[in-house]
Amino acid sequence: MVPHDDGAFAPTTEDAPSSSGFLDDGKNTIGSQLASRLREAIISGELQAGSKINLDKARKTFNVSLSPLREGLARLISDGLVEFEDNRGYRVSSISLANLEEITTLREEFEVFALRESMRLGDVGWEGNVMRALHRLNRTERDAARPETLERWEELHREFHLTLISGCGKPILLHFCSLLLNLNDRYRRVFLTRTSGDRNVSQEHSEIAQGAVARDLDYACDMLRQHIHRTGTNLRNHLATKGTL
Amino acid sequence: MVPHDDGAFAPTTEDAPSSSGFLDDGKNTIGSQLASRLREAIISGELQAGSKINLDKARKTFNVSLSPLREGLARLISDGLVEFEDNRGYRVSSISLANLEEITTLREEFEVFALRESMRLGDVGWEGNVMRALHRLNRTERDAARPETLERWEELHREFHLTLISGCGKPILLHFCSLLLNLNDRYRRVFLTRTSGDRNVSQEHSEIAQGAVARDLDYACDMLRQHIHRTGTNLRNHLATKGTL
DNA sequence: ACTATCAAAATAATCGATTATCCGTCAAGG
DNA sequence: CCTTGACGGATAATCGATTATTTTGATAGT
């Protein structure tokens, strides 16, 4: 049996997303582990966008057999990070200005909608999760000199945004938002090694979170939309500058 | 066939979805064919919602080996029609009132948004595609006595809704809408053997399409939203009546 | 030179068998 | 009795080898 401790509190609300990575891991299936490793490799930019994934090389690189490799790649297709074509194999999804703009637009639409629903439906457990995620995020420093802090920050940042909308009671919507965050994070990881100086991102997050738990619908939604929009603009500039498009 | 659309990009104009039967088919990979067969089996209700998928039995039923079977199932996971858990195998996604209501809500949000964008951005080619899809759909009769007409109608209906929003220039959004349509169609296929008598669905489609090509944004969006909403209400009633929830 | 054609190499897809994991059952101990 | 843990059948995951497809590169014909 899997002791899924839905424990004590949080009747309606779901368990706060895994705080410190995964603990019970290590006995997952090879395919699952591969999916994680590949996902990180793609989002971090280690595997270049648009590049072909040679099964034989990948098999040797990761020291696994074909079955779990395909299994792992199949999951990344669901994530939109890998594309596939019959008899032609796999390829890391391309990045482009249009793609980034679509992601930003959809995040504005969907995440804001999900936030509104969360404020409408979320219980006190949700509020607590939001404040905790905010606190954790704001207490974590990004030091461009130490890559592990960047990874950690990305993880907490992702978690904050997901927690914010986790009260909406719409699993499919949450899934879509999660995918969009994944796609968006790849752009940030590739193009931003540090937070742009002209923004106080921590404060933006705080304003959103406080508006959310105060159920100030219009304010919180507006702040979130602006936050996403600014991030998009910021990334677009970097993409235009550094990118080879 | 199901247009699997995450492709690279579909700038503004799109090739009209497969009109003259299937030419390039017949030499796909076994995994692909399986994915299609399984998708149809699930959407049509042949494979009961929530039921476990035994790999050995499936292997014998379809007379294939494990590799392509897993390959096919992996794609249905992307479609949200199959769920998977490590070491526990595959299972047809469950249906529920909550799930149906979420699908309906999200369709209202996403499809309407996509339609608005299509009207804003779509070119004359898109308009033509919409009118053609409408014509094809309205010229096709649903005869409850002949299942093949139901399948045909479902295909054209799906195509109409996708064509309607195909001008939005947002591949990811189209992908999401396509998934939602898939999920929604399963409910209709399972619970409706005939169009409910109190609605003139053909006329609803015509109003939406005409409003769309006339670029009457508010009117068309409103019609589409009501259309989706009515379908949702309709399905919910059938689900409550016939379903064993 | 240019294109078309075919053979060989590279790559992807599939298979059958093996290994690992889960799940129900039953016996021993508390 | 109830709990606990070990056995065994059922099921899933993985592997190594085989088959099918695509791509490459060389050759011949126009």
Automatic annotation (TrEMBL), chains A, B:
Entries under SMART domains matching the protein: FCD, HTH_GNTR
Source organism superkingdom: Bacteria
HTH gntR-type domain ranges (all copies): 28-95
Pfam family, one: GntR
Keywords per UniProt: DNA-binding, Transcription, Transcription regulation
The UniProt record lists the keyword Electron transport: no
Residue ranges, annotated region (Disordered): 1-25
The protein's name in its UniProt record: GntR family transcriptional regulator
The organism of origin for this protein: Mesorhizobium album
